[in-house]
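Entry:
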Amino acid sequence: MLKAYGTLLRIPGGFKFSSAGFIGRMPIAMDSLAIIFIVVAATDSYALAGVLTAVGSIVVGAAELYWSRQADQRGQAKILRLAVPIRIIAFLIFVFLVSKDAPIWTWFVSLVIAESTAISAGGMVRRRWLHILKNDPDNSDGHLVNTAYSWEAMVDEIVFILGPVVATSFAVNIAPSAGILAGLVFLAIGLPSLAAMKSTEPPAEPANEKQPHPAVLRNRIVQSIVIPCAFLGGFFGAVGITVVGFDEEKNAASSTGWLLALWAVGSAVAAIINGAIKFQSAHATRFLIYLVGLTLGTVPLLFVDSIAVLAVALFVNGLFIAPLIVNAYGTVENAVPAGQITEALTWVIAGMPLGAAISSALAGIIIDNAGARSAFWVPLGFMFAAMVATLPYLSTYRAAIGYAQPRD
């Protein structure tokens, strides 16, 4: 069953850049939670914490698209060496301002600067897999691309298993700011290491002014994935802050990291299985199936009344996440030319911060006024919205089945 993974990881350089990407994207599972902890500790307001993470999420969405486009056109190493130092300095300033009870507007300014340098490390790593698998004889039928995406989905889930635990443990046991600082350490190690791995870096493809490719988001297939995924981001954002609030109400704040980790374990298990199977169905077909599955798997969250029940509900819910994201990536990657792949892969998750921005703020207000159990309606609402968003694109999904964009 796991033979495909062995083949994939024996490809020269693959495991190294995947490992660097793993370390470099640990902060994506830590930052929002760490911001909630430090802001709630300073102000005792989930609403303010939700608004801050919402604003940060909006900026992240735009920033990741910009830097991904630049990575396609100028090369990954140049972009990483420029953005990472700025991000570290800006987050240190944010921690200082919150810790010193500076005016709240300065918190927003420093956070916006920090998040404006957000890099889609996952998109860069997936682009490297496509680059080194392009001419690999073991990938003649393309199945190793699905394995690579599934592997990276599993890595993402390991990030979301460890990240919340580290952020929560540091924030609760050391200091409210320690979660953010720990994330900066991971960032400072992982992404510069990825930049240094030149042998697997995809070549830069400067924009062709004479024959420019159409904007990525004008592609209907890309749209059919990006718009539902924006609502999916609302689901993720609402679950995160609601779990924090639920644990606080149960006087079990230290359980937050482990509960979110268990959620990710479910997704990681599904990712491993997904990558070992040679599917006959198209990515678009599986995307729709798993979208429906995740929506139905969110309903049990409405009925949780204890930490134990919440743990089971999150694990089951997580089983649908990785396969959904893997097939979202697979659908858009096949729909664009080589010079736009990193940007297209980033578009899959670029809309998620916008959804998370709205849902985090909304869930935070509901937690403050009606309690955490009521706030679990927010992620379910966003999942139903994601399903509704697919309806205008049903003909597009049919066209996406078996469709692949020729690489130029």
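The radius of gyration is 20 Å.
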